[in-house]
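Task 17 of the worksheet. Students: predict the tertiary structure of the chain below and write it out as structure tokens. Keep your answer in the requested format; marks are given for formatting as well as content.
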Amino acid sequence: MPLSPITARERVIQALRRQPSDRTPYHFRAEPEVYAALRARFDLPDDEAVRVWAGSDIRDIGAICGEGGYGGYTGFGWRDRPLADGTQEDFWGVRRRRVVYDGGAYTDICHWPLRNATPAEIRAYAWPDPARIFDFSTLPALLEAQYPGHAYWTLIEIESLFDRCWALRGMEGFMEDLLAEPELAEYMLTWMAEFFFTRTRMLLDAAHGAIDAVGLFNDLGTQQAMMISPALYRAHIKPRQRRLIEMAKEYGVTVFYHSCGAVEPIIDDFIEIGVDIIDPLQMPAMGVTPEVLHARYGGRITFHGGLDTQTLLPYATPDAVAAEARHLCTTLGADGGYILAGSHLYQVDIPLENIRAIQQT
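Model answer:
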């Protein structure tokens, strides 16, 4: 008997529950320049039309919530504000500059407010108060207006504990603190974790079930190994993430964890603290194949990503891209539990025909 028509949201839920569905769910993610190129190539009026054209079942809703995906601002503090030197400063005091490359642009941190701070200055830093900055009361109405009937599976970032600490302190400085000044690192992590905990509870209280999943976004891996050791992750970050996840699950949401790079040594830790979905599956960096990944973790966590944006998508033929997409769906998704997506946002070096090949798979 053929399966009844289902919504995009129902398709993702079926994958999470490992139930039969009409197809593997797909999450389209791309840089703004790729969106613009697809709009021009296929005569699409806006970015939402691109996502519909692509057949994306998931909607990242951070942009709906306000600047930077953090939330609707109350007027206290400021949005990212432009400075006279052309940089922008956020409410943490972190500054970013626009860097142009061949085909596009990105923002890069150029000022870390606690980079050269003494321990006393770090302890005197005025940590932002989410209750004074954010207002999520309009979120359900915004989502209903944008996506009537909750037809798409919705995801929002709630935490970037490691990344935000080094954005304040500087990468080298925070790494040194973890090893040489662990009490100072613990101080920063405690305050940062409390910020995200409070903000997440505010967000989920206001959402009234309109959000399907919350995401933790921390890049803990490099192209060859973890950025910090598993022992440091388990000592300093894992307990705080466990507390946040336990609270979030009181609201019935799914937990999504994004970490680029070689994080295979701590996937079991993610599963232990309640992570439901692991993204983006940079398997060449992790040193595993889809078959190995599924054998080790299939049935215990849902996979998201895996379409290689470094060597496959920019250089392969459309037929090869389509074949790899099918391969991932039949290996990582052998018993459900897989969402097809790139191993990063689609970049400007990916031919549009290769993106179309995924859409037509």
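Marker's comment: The two ends are 23 Å apart (CA to CA). Residues 182-207 form the longest helix (26 residues).
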